[in-house]
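Deliverable D4.2, example record:
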Amino acid sequence: MTQLTTPYNFVPLSTKVFFPGWAKDSRQLSHDAPLQNGWCGNLRIRLTAETPLLVAGTQNGAERHPLKVMGKYAIPGSSVRGMLRNVLEIASFGKFGRAVNDRAMSIRDLTPSGEVYRKQINANTVHAGWLKLASGHGATLATVEPTGMLRMDEREASDWARDARLEGTDPYWMALDEEDPSSGKVEEWIVVRTGAVAKKRQDFLFRTRPSAAVLPISRDLFQQFAAAHQHNPLWANKQGEPGDLQKRLMEGKRIPVFFIYDPKNKTRIQAFGLAYMFRVPYRHSLHNAIGSKDSSHHDQRRLDFCEALFGLIHDGEDEHPTSLRSRVGFGLALATQAKPHPDTKGIDVVLNEPKPSFYPAYMKGGQTLMSDRPQLAGWKRYPVRTQAAPQNTNVGIKGKTNDNIGSKLFPLQKGATFEGDITLHNLHPEELGGLLWALTWGQQANLRHSLGMGRPFGFGSLKIEVLQLDLRHNSDASQDKNLSCPKDQAAMTEAIRQLMQPFEQTMETAIGKWASSDQIRELQAMANPAFGDRAAPQLR
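Output generated by the structure prediction step:
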C-alpha cells in the first residue's frame, strides 16, 4: 500500500478554549483609558534567516521575487504579525473556528470503497427534475419540478448536438418526440447531455412536462449545489463567470437537474446536481467537525486571547462591538544584510496542496465528514529544518511540465537579517508576556519560526531576537517599573523572563499542566529544527 506523506503536521485541537477575564469588559481593551496595570512602549526585533527566505513581493508569471521597499529587501509587518499570531493562538488555547473557512464540502466517490456514496446515489434514489429560480426573496430560493427520465446512447446524443450546431440551432436544448414507457403515449422530451466523462456511454432524455408537485429549494441547499459545481464548465468557468446553464437560470429559464429525496421526508430534496452521479454534500461541515471537540472553538460571543490583543472584525449580532482595534502594531522590517540566492534561474517547485475535502490529509484517525463525530486533525504547521530541500514534482508524462501549477522561486540566501519595531499600547501584563513568549518561544534558544513561501521544502526558518525593550508602565509615576534598553544580554534575558511570567502563570491556572500539554509539546516540536531534520523523509 502506498503511504501518504505530507510536508506538514498538526498541533491537536484542545478540548478547552481559554477566554481571558479581561476580554469580557470593553474598558479593559481600550485605546483611550490607560489600564492601571498596563504596559505601553516599543520592541526592536531582529529576524535572521537560517534557510533561504522568500517573502514574495513581485510576481512575473510563475516567478516569485522577494519584496523590496525603497530599494531594500523587506518583510511586511502584516507577515510578522500573522506568523506570531498563529503561534500565540495555539499557545493561548484560542478558538480554532477563525482559522477555518467553513466551505460546503461535497463528495463523488466512484472507487470500489465508495460504499457511502453509492448508497445515496444509485438507480433507485436518483430522480430527474427542472430547476427554476423562485420569484421574491423568501426562504425558498428556487424550485424543482420532478419529471420523467429516459436514458439515451451517448453517441446518439452527440450526433444530435453536432447536427444542431450545423443547423445553427441550440446544441443543448434539443427537443424530440419519444414514447413514454410507463404510459405508451408519445411525449416531448429534451436531450440532456451532462458533459464529457471517460468511458461514458449514456446521456438522458427529460420529459418536458412535470410529473409531480413542485419541491422547494432553500438558500442553503442552493449554495451547497453552487459550491459543489464551481468547477463544472456547465455552471461556471475557471474565472468564476457563469456557464451556459447558470446563464439560463439567471434569465428565468428552467434547467435540468438530478436530485435525491430526503430519506426522512419525501417532500423535501436532500441534494441535487447537474450529473446523474453528482457531488453529494457531506453530512457535516468543517465547523461541525471543530464543534465535536468543543463548541467553544467557534463561539462568536466571547473573545479569546488573540482576538482581544490583535483585534477583529466581528459580524455577529451580540453584545460585542462590530470591530476592535489591535493594541499591537507591527512595522516594516528592513534588511540590514541580504543577498539573492545564487541560483539565478530560480528554483522550480509546485506549491499546490490537497483540498480540504481530501480527508486523509486533514482529518483525525481516517475519519471523514460522513462519520458520526468527525474531528479535524488540528492546527496545521510546517516543521522547520536546518536545510532547505526543494522538490520539483511538476514533471508529467514524457517529462512535460504543467505551466498552470509550477512556480519558480527566487529566495534570499541563508543569513539574511532584518530589523523592525513592534509598538505596544495598553497591554495587560499577561498579553505582553504572551507576545514575548511567542517571539522567543518561551526563551528556548533552539526553536525557530517559519515564514514566507516554500515552507513545505524547509525555506523560511527564522531566528528572532529582541534587541531592545522600551516599555512604560501606566501606573508607576516614579518610572521605577519602566524598562528601557537593558544594559547587556543577561539583563535582557532576565527582563523577558520576568515579563513572561504573568502569561505562563495565567495559562497554567486556566489549563492545568499547560507547559507539558500535548498542544505546547507538539507546537514546540515543530519549531525544533532537530525534529524537522529527523522527520525530513516523511515531509514530502
